[in-house]
Design a protein that fits this description.
It is a single chain. The chain is mainly β and 282 residues long. It has helices at residues 21-36, 191-194, 201-205; strands at 49-52, 57-60, 69-71, 78-81, 98-101, 108-112, 125-130, 136-138, 148-152, 161-165, 173-181, 186-190, 206-214, 221-225, 228-232, 238-247. A five-stranded antiparallel beta sheet has the order 4-5-6-7-8, with no helix packed on it.
Length: 282
């Protein structure tokens, strides 16, 4: 650390010693210098951490922090949190740590498995990112006690909000639905085409489908063969159709799908591997 001298700083202390006001001021100034500097190679001009005691703020890379904790860097600031008990960071990689970083493309992202002491943008696996527009992406399974969407109310305006809850069920199900007119008494529906998917996607994604077709005041029949739903009935009858199928793609069978078994079926009941964490005090 760059050498710094403060006149009047007491050098020896004894238990119970009472410092004068002048001695306290000098000691406080010296301790703040140590905290602000912290770099044995610089000359004391650069202050990596600032304690703004007047406003109760801490700044890292900031000369005048404008928040309770401010972190700033010229390019892509990032933070590393690691369980040092694993010792993994001593051997070149870190499998238990979490990196929180910000850049111009993904303002906030969380990574694991990054190379130790390297910028996380160049290594590791992205587990969650939050883009500047608010889009959140999670790699793997997302689990929540309650899932809802909450939007500005489309008709009431003002401060009114509109909330809907997600549809839940004991299977990894997908829902396809639509309306079709039986021109000439028949209609064929390509589930890939009506869903805006590449040919073959529906069959690669779905298994064990359940189908229902209804037309008000009309008797209709239907059959599903692969991705093709065929409906027959009175000419020009308007029919509503619904297909529900269980997912069976590779993702739902992978190790990242923690709530499913190896075949991709949802495991509805399970026992925690660890006890429920203590509730934080209010």
């Amino acid at each position: 650390m760059a050498q710094q001298t403060f006149s009047g700083v007491p050098g020896d202390f004894t238990a119970g010693q009472v410092l004068t006001a002048a001695e306290m001021d000098k000691l406080r100034e010296f301790l703040l210098y140590l905290i602000k500097d912290g770099d044995e190679g610089d000359t004391g001009e650069v202050s990596p951490m600032i304690l703004d005691l007047g406003n109760d703020r801490i700044g890292i890379g900031q000369t005048a922090p404008y928040a309770t904790l401010g972190v700033e860097a010229a390019a892509s600031p990032w933070m590393h949190i690691v369980d040092t008990g694993t010792g993994s960071e001593l051997f070149g990689t870190d499998s238990s740590g979490v990196y929180v970083a910000a850049d111009g493309v993904l303002p906030i992202y969380f990574k694991t498995g990054c190379t130790w002491n390297a910028h996380p943008a160049s290594s590791g696996t992205n587990r969650m990112s939050i883009a500047s527009g608010g889009t959140v992406n999670v790699t793997g399974e997302f689990t929540a006690t309650i899932k809802t969407f909450d939007i500005a109310h489309p008709t009431r305006g003002g401060d009114w909000r509109l909330r809907h809850a997600s549809v839940e069920g004991p299977r990894n199900d997908l829902i396809y639905r639509g309306t079709v007119t039986l021109s000439g008494g028949t209609a064929t529906i390509d589930l890939d085409e009506v869903s805006g998917m590449t040919d073959g996607t529906w069959e690669a994604l779905c298994r064990d489908p359940w189908t229902m077709v209804a037309s008000s005041g009309n008797a209709v029949e239907w059959s599903l063969s692969g991705k093709m739903l065929t409906v027959t009935g009175p000419a020009d009858a308007v029919c509503n159709w619904l297909v529900i199928a269980e997912r069976h793609d590779a993702a739902v069978k992978s190790d990242q799908a923690l709530s499913s078994d190896d075949d991709g079926h949802l495991v509805t009941e399970y026992e925690r591997d660890e006890p429920e964490p203590d509730t934080p005090p209010e």
